């Protein structure tokens, strides 16, 4: 999504873009402190940062019947999952919020960097792993078994896409610059989709050892038409996620302030 924006293919006059590459939970925590002017965050983290940030219309990662999955070394009955120790990729991730919504507040968890979760489960440090990113595709090759698909469960119940990640801009940049940055991000995504091989070659540099086909499958899951705008079902999905979490007593739903 950001390739064209960080390589001068598109941009905003007078604005220098400096990429910051960190895993999503680290970005969530930096947003809590208001450190970054524009950043990707988990959708579930937005209620905690809404006072400092507005949502950019472009660049959201929306699952279409897909999303975080729970895996284990062998099958586990659904009714036993709330009692099992789950390795999660961060306190503020959308995956962790879904886990609480579907398995309850009391499910025991340990926080593990997302790319280490399969190893932690395989070694028995956790009974279950909550996988995000390419782990949703590669878990079988690692010798793990899917025990619950949270993205599939969400779609069955809501009939809406699953808002996993969004991009936000700090409020102190103002409406004019924030709007230009939103437009530039949309232009960056359009460029990447029109020059897919070029953008994919760039993405593979940060693919954590992924082969080209796995990378392409993962990108196609989330860099789609829904990444272009939150209008319509995108906003409805975000609102549904926040309202459901509020009804469960997990967080307070914020206004959807989208640029």
Defining traits:
single chain, 259 residues, alpha+beta, D-Maltodextrin-Binding Protein, domain 2, 2 domains, five-stranded mixed sheet, four-stranded antiparallel sheet, globular
Q: What Rg is obtained from the alpha carbons, in whole angstroms? A: 18 Å
Number of continuous helical runs: 11
The biggest beta sheet is recorded as: 5 strands, mixed
- Distance linking N and C termini: 17 Å
Give the averaged pLDDT, no decimals: 91
In CATH, the topology of the largest domain is named D-Maltodextrin-Binding Protein, domain 2
Specify the CATH class of the largest domain. Alpha Beta
In total, the number of strands is 9
Q: Which of globular, elongated, flat, extended, rod-shaped describes the shape?
A: globular
Parts with pLDDT < 50 across at least 5 consecutive residues: none
Tell me the β content: 15-25%
Would you list the SSEs in sequence order as H and E?
HHEHEEEEHEHEHEHEHHHH
- Order of strands in the sheet with most strands: 6-5-7-4-8
- CATH architecture descriptor name of the largest domain: 3-Layer(aba) Sandwich
Percent helix among the residues? 25-40%
Structural class by sheet pairing and helices: alpha+beta
């Amino acid at each position: 999504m950001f390739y064209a924006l960080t390589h001068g293919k598109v941009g905003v006059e007078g604005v220098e873009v400096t990429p910051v590459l960190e895993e999503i939970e680290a970005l969530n925590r930096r947003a809590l402190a208001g450190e970054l002017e524009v950043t990707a965050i988990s959708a579930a983290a937005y209620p905690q940062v809404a006072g400092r940030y507005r949502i950019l219309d472009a660049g959201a990662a929306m699952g279409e019947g897909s999303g975080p999955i729970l895996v284990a070394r062998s099958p586990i009955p659904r009714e036993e999952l709330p009692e099992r120790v789950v390795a999660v990729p961060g306190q503020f991730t959308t995956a962790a919020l879904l886990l609480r919504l579907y398995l309850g507040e009391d499910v025991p968890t340990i926080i593990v960097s997302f790319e280490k979760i399969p190893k932690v489960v395989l070694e028995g440090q956790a009974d279950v792993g909550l996988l995000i990113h390419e782990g949703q595709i590669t878990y079988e090759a690692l010798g793990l078994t899917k025990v619950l698909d949270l993205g599939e469960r969400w779609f069955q119940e809501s009939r809406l896409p699953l808002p996993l990640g969004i991009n936000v801009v700090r409020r102190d940049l103002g409406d004019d610059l924030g709007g230009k940055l939103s437009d530039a991000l949309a232009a960056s995504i359009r460029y990447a989709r029109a020059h897919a091989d070029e953008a994919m070659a760039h993405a593979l540099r940060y693919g954590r050892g992924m082969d080209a086909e796995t990378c392409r499958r993962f990108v196609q899951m989330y860099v789609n038409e829904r990444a272009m705008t939150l209008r319509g079902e995108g906003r409805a999905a975000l609102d549904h996620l926040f309202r459901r979490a509020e009804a469960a007593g997990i967080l307070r739903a914020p206004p959807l302030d989208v640029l």
